[in-house]
Amino acid sequence: MQNALSRQLTPSQKKAVFHIEGPLLILAGPGSGKTRVITHRIAALIDSGVKPHNICAITFTNKAADEMRQRAVALGASAGAHISTFHSLCVRILRQYAHKAGISPNFSVYDDADQTRCIKQAVKACELDTTNFPPARMLDAVSALKNNLIDVDSFKTRADDFFSKTLAKIYARYQTILTDANALDFDDLLFKTAFLLRDCPDVCAELGNRFKFLLIDEYQDTNHAQYKMAKYLVSTHNNICVTGDPDQSIYRWRGADIRNILAFEKDWPDATIVKLEENFRSTPNILQAADNLIAANQNRKPKKLIPTKPPGPDIVISPFPDEMQEAQGLVKQIKEFTAKGASTKDIAVFYRVNSMSRVLEEAFIEEKVPYQIVRGVEFYSRKEIRDILAYLKILVNPDDELALLRIINTPARGIGKTTIDKVRSYAARQNVTLYDALKKADKIDSLSKSPKSKITSFVKMIEQFKKDSAGPVAPLAERVFTESGLVKSLKAIGPDGRNAIENVNELISAAAQYDDQTEEPSLLDYLQQISLFSDVDAYDTSTDRVALMTLHCAKGLEFENVFIVGVEDGLLPHERSNSDQNTDEMEEERRLFFVGMTRAKSGLNISYAKYRTIRGHVLRTIPSPFLFELGIEFNDTPAENHYHYDDSTSQDVPQLAPNQMVRHKKFGLGTIEEFIDMGQNSVVVVKFNSGQTKSLMLKYAPLKIIENS
DNA sequence: CATAGCCGCCTTTTT
DNA sequence: GGCGGCTATG
Question: Which bases of chain C are contacted by protein, using any atom under 7 A from a CB?
Fold first, then answer.
């Protein structure tokens, strides 16, 4: 069997696959066949007598887990190994040992939208101003604390300045809100599991005995909580194998600690280290440029990228006048590629921010090129989907106040704000949950007859659903959709409603699929699973479409032809990352570009636009400084109007004279100071009454001419 | 209590 | 430029 498994493996790959006992660090460069090595390793472990259920492999996304499971089975490994993400593993552990973790097993998992609502509530409850304490910032801070396993009490004792003390209050309040709702956010899943393992040696031993072999992929992107989890899990058997590439660490902002992989040898002094430096994916010219780029990072261990493929086409760097023409040019290029026989599904477009997908999408539609935007969570943030899911969540976890408040009057059933406020204050007085208060609506004196009966029938409906909530999910979801009145209310709003109904039907189909594929389908399990759904998980590789995704999503994937768009200063590197050279943030942006480039097997096309509309403002841009680090000569002058964008934006621009009055959508009234006639590209300098002076491109700027009367 | 329309907020990347 | 939340109105 070893022979069968080791076929077509290089010597270092073989070492990584067959080094069974003890800690192992696999430093794997891009395209080094790392995924292959891991799946082979799982098969080799089983082959050497390890029971499948004694293996736990942790991947970065659910999709990666699914693929790994399939590949391992295809290699002849019997199924049964636990392969999942850290978060899924935590859900499983926490559900099993809920009582020991001090939680209830039917907990809701709060996503970022839920988190935002809760943190806002917390900031408000602390009677703080949201301008001085912006909820998004507070959430980041709380998240960072949890990722570093700092609990409320220990943070309180160490908080010595005003800000920290305030943050401690918000943190405490936020946790109370979540606890009261029997909810855990993404960070809690890791946090609670790590503390469970720390505080319950019996649980730790039990899991350690079960998972005798632990494999962690993308180890460079683990955070402190995940690191601790790993340490606890392997404390008995010491069989830990991690793989990763410090040059591909792109989640520092989310708490990922690159030191975890850099210090692996210190943590496990008897560790074996295998380097996989050969690259089987990209052409030598792509690797050379990627290497030139990443070499600019100061804070790194130098590493080789050894090419194994024959030379391929040159990297193309194309400037465009603006993002519309960039999109148009991109789609035209893709058409040329496919006309020459390239497969549509083997083409990907990467961008730094999600908002850039819009203009690309328009061009794909216009040119009728099939595409998919890889953004899985978007579906779950639609109103109608959140509504139906809120109904289902309540059946499992009636304490989930966020879900309850969402549906109590959706569709409208005459339970308005005043009524809800009365019930809430009753609940607070009696120290019961909102749902319990609703159940006792009859006893709430402040309520008059009509709202009482409306509440009663709502509770009755929910209780009815609850009775039949065991078993498969899809039929229940369908029933809830109809009987809650959601379908009816959506039908009533016309075409948009039809669309919404379609979406819910899609959800029900997905639930049916879950029912089919799961041995014992349960609503709780289903809800907890879909809450851990990630963007790439929605990536459908079976259809022939161009994949559009963020650079972060691109991690772990590969394509024959890659297009990276919007490679401009301020976008990549993003302006929000500290723009000083060689700060940690700048280096992470560089790694992000590195990850994007090294996804390409043969065609790598980089583009940027000289003008880009950002949040409604047309801004002049400059090429990303990273472009000058690639060691490639390129021409900064766009092929003017090469790709004519047939749109109102390229209509004739007016001739303007100084002193002409204009009104700008954003800046208000202003006077023309100068008119630079460049035909389509005429520029005006406007002095606005607000005091600021702007130079604007006429074909983009939303300027209205005020007639002199 | 429902609805529409407006204001003001945020806006990097995601499990 | 988009969305959530708030307010004014029916």
Answer: 1, 4-5
Helix extents (H) in A566-658: 584-597
Cβ of residue A624 lies below 7 Å from strand B: no
- Per-residue pLDDT tens digits for A51-87: 999 999 999 998 899 899 998 888 877 788 999 999 9
Residue A583 near residue A290, CB atoms below 8 Å: no
Residue carrying the six token digits 């709060």? A110
- A542 pLDDT tier (thresholds 50, 70, 90): confident
Q: Is A218 a catalytic residue?
A: yes
A672's CB contacts (< 8 A; 6+ apart) are A656, A657, A658, A659, A660, A661, A662, A684, A685, A686
Q: Which strand B bases fall within 7 angstroms of a protein CB?
A: 1-3, 9-15
Q: Is A35 a catalytic residue?
A: yes
The two structure tokens encoding residue A670: 């202003």
Q: Which long-range contacts (CB under 8 A, 24 or more apart) does A439-448 make?
A: A446/A422, A447/A419, A447/A422, A447/A423
CA of A626 to C1' of B9 (A): 33
Choice among A218, A535, A537, A587 that is catalytic: A218
pTM > 0.70: yes or no = yes
Q: What is the pLDDT of residues A375-398, one digit of tens each?
A: 877 788 888 888 899 999 999 999
Mean pLDDT, range A357-384, rounded to an integer: 86
* CA distance linking residue A552 with residue A68, whole number of Å: 20
